[in-house]
Amino acid sequence: MEETQDHMEEIEGSEENVTFKSLGIVDVLCEACELLKWKTPTKIQRESIPIALQGKDVIGLAETGSGKTGSFALPILQSLLENPQRLYALILTPTRELAFQISEQFEALGSTIGIKCAVIVGGIDMMTQSLMLAKKPHVIIATPGRLVDHLENTKGFNLRSLKYLVMDEADRILNMDFEQEVDKLLKVIPRERKTYLYSATMTKKVAKLQRASLKDPVKVEVSSKYQTVDKLMQYYIFIPAKHKDVNLVYILNELAGNSFMVFCSTCANTQRVALMLRNLGMTAIPLHGQLSQAKRLGALNKFKSKTRSILIATDVASRGLDIPHVDVVINLDIPTHSKDYIHRVGRTARAGRSGKAITFVSQYDVELYQRIEHLIAKKLPLYPREDQEVMQLMERVTEAQRFARMELSETSNKKGKGKRSKRPDDEDDTEESTGVRKKFKKKKGK
């Protein structure tokens, strides 16, 4: 019902011809929106932009993929046009990828007016970043930890002139234990500023942060209920933990031709599963927090450009990343926080398209799975599969697992000796094999 109501409101909005111009956005930025193919404002943009343009603080509760970045970027850029000034706005985000994505949108929207942005995140050389900050960009997009490092260690850098503070995905910034860093930042930035706080969920920590940092804010809520889109077909599979890999391979074979995101709970498992699938001839690429920044962006780009069809990821990739073409989300490891389920499966069935989500439930996950069903208020159907067909793959998968383990230990041994080792994300498009993989391919060819 709520879904239909949202749809009705959108129709009403289009009948009233709501445009960015009618919300109060100036012509030069309206043209930038057209270049980005943003035809009409999304619901969160329609509700929050007019409030922001009035100079009020905003709390936006909206899910990922709802157009949040535009709803704070446009008012900031418009205000910057009226009062040109360096170090004007700071956007805090929980993950590096999200920071780069927000920066891309700011630069695209501000391309005609010469906006300079700096992305300040971990995994990149501090000295290079210090030079970027010395040039005094208009907008800084940062993860809290690295920004505090610069405030404490980079000579001449401060945020005393700041006019805007945005905390995007605030619930996750706080969940990732950035509370101390956020407190430090709030102490060193001007009290006289505009603050926008965006979050998918209103947790106790977010409410506390709101009281500490916002003045008479206006709350804008797009969806008050946890929900997964109607066009998303959700299933679960109940299997022993030791049969997870073989069932994963079965599903990837069954649904071949689609693009997949497979979620794992740890970096090590992500790496292992990617190697195992590579050994079986599948184009899999890992994305997790222990990769260097260049590799993370490389992995994302390969997946976006469809040169890889399977992205194996930890929760670093479950929220906020704009990956438009995922057909199937597989939760190989069930998320420990039920809300993360919503964000993970939100990677598919975007922008009105349909999609599938399949969650693996082992004997250890029953309670976590029941919490998810309770949260989304749905009983999910079992994913149909032929046990006999699954078990036929067992021998090949066991062999691929063994070789993946050998490759991982080979990698860690080389690392221990200080040599640079090749990891699955290092491979170029020629797919050159490591020694272990060559042995595996010979064995298969027998």
How much of the residues is beta strand, in percent?
5-15%
Overall body shape: globular
Question: Might you state the CATH topology name of the largest domain?
Answer: Rossmann fold
Q: Mean pLDDT, nearest integer? A: 83
Domain module count: 2
* Range of helix content: 40-55%
Number of helices: 18
How many extended strands? 13
The CATH architecture classification of the largest domain is 3-Layer(aba) Sandwich
In the sheet with the most strands, the strands line up as: 3-4-2-5-6-1-7
Give unreliable regions as ranges: 1-15, 419-435
The biggest beta sheet, please? 7 strands, parallel
- The secondary-structure class comes to alpha/beta
CATH class of the largest domain: Alpha Beta
Terminal Cα separation, in Å?
58 Å
Task: Report the CATH superfamily of the largest domain.
Answer: P-loop containing nucleotide triphosphate hydrolases
Q: For the CA atoms, what is the radius of gyration?
A: 23 Å
Keywords:
alpha/beta; single chain; Rossmann fold; disordered N terminus; 13 strands; 2 domains; 446 residues; globular; six-stranded parallel β-sheet; seven-stranded parallel β-sheet
Explain the layout of strands and helices.
Elements: H1 2-15, H2 27-35, H3 43-53, E1 58-61, H4 68-82, E2 89-92, H5 96-109, E3 117-120, H6 126-134, E4 139-142, H7 144-153, E5 164-167, H8 170-175, H9 179-188, E6 194-199, H10 204-213, E7 218-221, E8 232-238, H11 244-254, E9 260-263, H12 267-279, E10 284-287, H13 293-304, E11 310-313, E12 328-331, H14 338-345, E13 355-361, H15 366-376, H16 387-392, H17 394-416, H18 435-445
Parallel strand pairs: 1-6, 1-7, 2-4, 2-5, 3-4, 5-6, 8-13, 9-11, 9-12, 10-11, 12-13
